[in-house]
Every structure is written in C-alpha cells, then in structure tokens.
Amino acid sequence: MTERFGLVREFLGRCWRTGPVAMLVVLGCLVLNMVSFALIGIGMRSIVNGTVHDDPTVMVLGAVGAAVAYTVDMTISEIGFMLRIHLVERVAVAEIETATLRDATGIETIEHLEHSDYLDRIALVRGESWAIVDSAWAVVEAVVLAVRLLLTVAVLGSVSPSLLVLVAFAAVPTVFEQRGRRRIQRVETETAELRRLERHLFALATEPATSKELRVAGTGADVVARQRAAWDRSATLRFRARLVAACWSTAGWLVFGVGFVGGLAVVIVQAGGRPSAAGDLVMVVTVGLQLRWAVEAAVRRSADTGGYGRLLEPFLWLRRYSARAAAERR
What is the rounded radius of gyration, in angstroms, for the C-alpha atoms of the chain? Predict the structure, then answer.
C-alpha cells in the first residue's frame, strides 16, 4: 500500500512537471464539476417553489442557477477530461514506457529474459503505460467523485433525513464491484503465461524465418492447434471471471435500486398534499436521478483504482527486480 501511494505521488508529480497549468485547470474542473452537480437540483426546487408561491425573482434565479450549473457540469467535465488525457499520454509515452524499456535492457545479463516470472510481468505491462499513469488520476477522481456523491446525498438529506440511508445502499455496488474486479485481476495474472504462449505460437506460424521451418517439418497444423488451444483456455478463464464480476455488479445495483425506491416512497408519504412540498419533491426526483449517475461514476472510478492493481503490481515487481540487478552490479 505504501508503494501504491508512492506511485500516486510520483505520477502526479511527473504530470505537474510536464504541464503545471494544464494540471491546475484539470483540478479546477474537478472541483467545479463536484459543486455544480448538486446545484442543479437546488435550482429546480427554486423554480417550482417560485411558481407555487408566485415569486418571479426566486423562479428566475432558480432557472438561471440550474442552467449555469448544468452547463458547467457538461462543459467543464469535457475540458478536464481532454486535458487529463493529454497529460497522461505525455507522461506515459515520454517517461514511464521509456523507463520500463531502459530497465529491461539495462540488465547486463539475459537470464531475466528466460524466466517466466519476468516475462509474464512484461507481458502484462506491455503497451499499458497509459493505464499505469492514469492510476494516479483514478485515485484523485475517486476522492472527488466520493465528495460529490456525499454532497448529492446531503441535498437529499435536507428534504428528509430518511434519505441519508442511501449512503449505505450506495456503498453496496462499490463493494460488489471491487469484489468482481479482484477476481478479474487474479485471472489476468494467472492467464498471462497462456497469452504469451499464444502470441509466441502465432509469431512462429507467421514470421518468414520460422514459418518455412514449420512447413518443412510438417508441424504447422500442430502449432496452429496449440495456439488455438492456448487462446481458448485463456479466453474462457477471462470470460468466466468477467461474467462473475458482472453478476456481482448487477446484484449491487439491484440492492441500491430497492433502497432508492424505498427512500422516494417515504418522502412522498411525508409530503402528503402540501403545496409547499412540491419543490422538495421535484428536487428529490431530479437529484435522485443524478444520484444514480453520481454513484455509477464513483463506483466506476473506484473500481478503476482497484483494477489498475493488475498493472501496478507487475510494474512495481519489475522495478524492484531492476533495482536488485543494479545493486548487484555495484
């Protein structure tokens, strides 16, 4: 865990050195997006209350506030997303991928290129430098999205404290999603050797130097059969892991859906027929619909944080291996 947080600091520091202005804009967009998300429902309540009480000022302010909050929520998130992608790509390609290749080629011997442990981990991180760097931003965004979720729930709680129980229901999809992700991560590591074998056999059958020898020896069909068997085995195991993860995710969302519908029913019963409660009901429905997306975004980014472990673990292992090899040379 300490190494993981160390990587977060390292990658964010690299992003800062690469583009400090862009990084400040990204962080600013995350904060604005966090606040505007909750203001949309408040603006809708003001519109309805202004209409019920015949107060044009409140109605206009609510309409303007909701429109501005919605516009900010849509445009700011897109700007922040594009700048974050730009930062991550620059750091990943120019620094992390180069450093990984340098570590692999900097070891004086070739013994490590004959060990399955080393080759399996190289296969896992190959072409994944972007995701490795994005793991740091996944942590930042997971925190921001969690705060946004809490703000959304707080708005609902201002209508009825009974809606605060949705926090517990919202945690269920997160727990279930992470459980499924851990299973996928474990299977990805277990099938790394099969995937490497499949790519190796494919190269044997398609590269000119080796395919000629296969034809002379008459073993082409056997190589193709072995390649297909390795792919089928790997694909089957990964499919089963993803199917189990999807079942966990579906179960979590069903639990949340039941809790949310129950919370709305309580609010409707408490409101009765009071005209003054019309704005609250509209806000509950508006924010309630937003809550689903807030929970989904928080769950997805939190799951990304855990899912990136399948890359960070081999990445850290390769770093430690290179460090030990460098220390032995001294």
Answer: 26
Q: What is the DSSP string of 250-264?
A: HHHHHHHHHHHHHHH
- Report yes or no: 165 and 259 within 8 Å, Cβ to Cβ: yes
Q: Where are the alpha helices (DSSP H) in 107-128?
A: 116-125
Using CB atoms within 10 Å of the CB of residue 47, give its burial: 0 to 12 exposed, 13 to 18 middle, 19+ buried.
buried
> Comparing C-alpha atoms, which of 123, 104, 128 is closest to residue 191?
123
- Global pTM? 0.63
Could you read off the pLDDT of 4-63 as tens digits, one per residue?
Answer: 788 888 888 988 998 899 999 999 988 888 777 777 777 777 766 666 666 677 777 777
Inter-CA distances, 169 with 22, 104, 151, 164, 211, Å: 36, 46, 16, 10, 58
Q: What are phi and psi of 249, to 5 degrees?
A: -65, -45
- Going along the chain, which residue ranges are E strands? none
pLDDT digits (tens, 9 = 90+) for 149-199: 888 777 777 777 777 777 778 778 878 887 888 888 788 878 888 888 888
